[in-house]
Amino acid sequence: MRAVRPGGRIVLKSRPAGPVPIDVALAVRKEITLEAVAYAPFQEALELLAQRRIDLSDLLGPVRPLEAFLAMAASEAPDEEVKVFLSPEA
After folding, report:
1. CA 15 to CA 19: how far, in whole Å?
2. Collapsed DSSP state (helix, strand, coil) of residue 50
3. CA 48 remoteness from chain centre
4. pTM of the complete model
5. 65 in helix, strand or coil?
6. What is the pLDDT of residues 28-86, one digit of tens each?
7. C-alpha torsion angle, residues 27, 28, 30, 32 (rounded to 10)
């Protein structure tokens, strides 16, 4: 809850084995939306990804080589991309 911006949204998609404490007062104060969703079985999702039947390119953002990490971390200029992924294969 502390990491979510005011007016943000948290999507609850896991199914924990037991109750999970939630700071409701903080959620109300920050006007956070909690959304619970149920997805298909995880194994089915893995199969769809392995078969490349789902295109995730618009979710991942740019992929940079793993070697670029130190230069990116040391840079004082913020990266304009919201998400940057590092890959040993890029």
Report:
1. 10
2. helix
3. 19
4. 0.46
5. strand
6. 999 999 998 877 788 888 898 889 888 877 777 778 899 988 888 787 666 565 677 88
7. 60
